[in-house]
Amino acid sequence: MCYLSLTRILLVVPTDAEITFADHAGRLYARRYGMAPMVGRLLGYLAICDPREQSIAELAEALLASRSAIAGAVNALDNLGLIRRSRAAGERMDRIRIDLTGPRSMGFDVTEYQEQADLAREGLALLADAPPERKAVLLEMAAFADFLVARLPELEKDWKAHREALRAAGELPHDPLHR
After folding, report:
1. What is the C-alpha separation between 26 and 21, in angstroms, rounded?
2. What pLDDT, on a 0 to 100 scale, did the predictor assign at position 108?
3. d(CA 142, CA 123)
4. Does domain 3-98 have CATH number 3.30.300.30?
5. Cβ neighbours for 59, distance < 8 A, ≥ 6 positions apart
6. Per-residue pLDDT tens for 111-163?
7. Residue 14 DSSP code
8. Where are the domains of the chain?
9. pLDDT in tens, 20-67
10. Coil, helix or strand for 63?
11. What pLDDT shows up at residue 11?
């Protein structure tokens, strides 16, 4: 084995503590959000890995998982807007990293709640002649979703100002991928 290959292998192997952290993330996201444990493990590992961008092969090796399991988890995280794929010129593989630049990744995407409100209203249309007690769940779902749609833009603005204050105080590093 050449020296460069050995060096690369040594750099990719995560510590036991890093794997434990990824496992804890896997259990948390499975329990709280119904995600497959591998999705949470991948999200946890991407939060701590070095370098921050990893190929599917590197992630599979680090997490002791199959490439297909990693690819499935990457697709799930991509669908949730939690990662960014990139490819350097001349490379034939994607590099994956956590992406906190979009509103979906930070929970500020109002379209999710607009869709929930629309669905609740669709259900309310079906129950137009029903007594208020039968409509109560859908009425509250629509009201709550409308509340979030109205409040999330202001909350996002407050978060961005708070984040910038933390960066200015040196409590958060500047990340060029944040806008």
Report:
1. 9
2. 93
3. 10
4. no
5. 42, 45, 46, 65, 70, 74, 96
6. 999 999 999 999 999 999 999 999 999 999 999 999 999 999 999 999 999 99
7. P
8. 3-98, 110-168
9. 999 999 999 999 999 999 999 999 999 999 999 999 999 999 999 999
10. helix
11. 55
Q: How far apart are CA 127 and CA 174, in angstroms?
A: 51
Amino acid occupying residue 12? V
Give me the numbers of helices (H) and strands (E) for the chain, helices first please: 7, 3
Alpha helical stretches, state H, 50-131: 56-63, 67-79, 110-126
What is the spatial distance between Cα 101 and Cα 47, in angstroms, rounded to a whole number? 14
CA distance 83 to 99: 5
Pair of tokens at residue 174 = 């500047």
Residue 96 bridge partners (DSSP):
54, 85
Whose structure tokens read 């999330």?
152
**Range 34-38 contact pairs with CB under 8 angstroms and sequence separation of 24 or more:** 35/76, 36/72, 36/73, 36/76, 38/63, 38/65, 38/69, 38/70, 38/72, 38/73
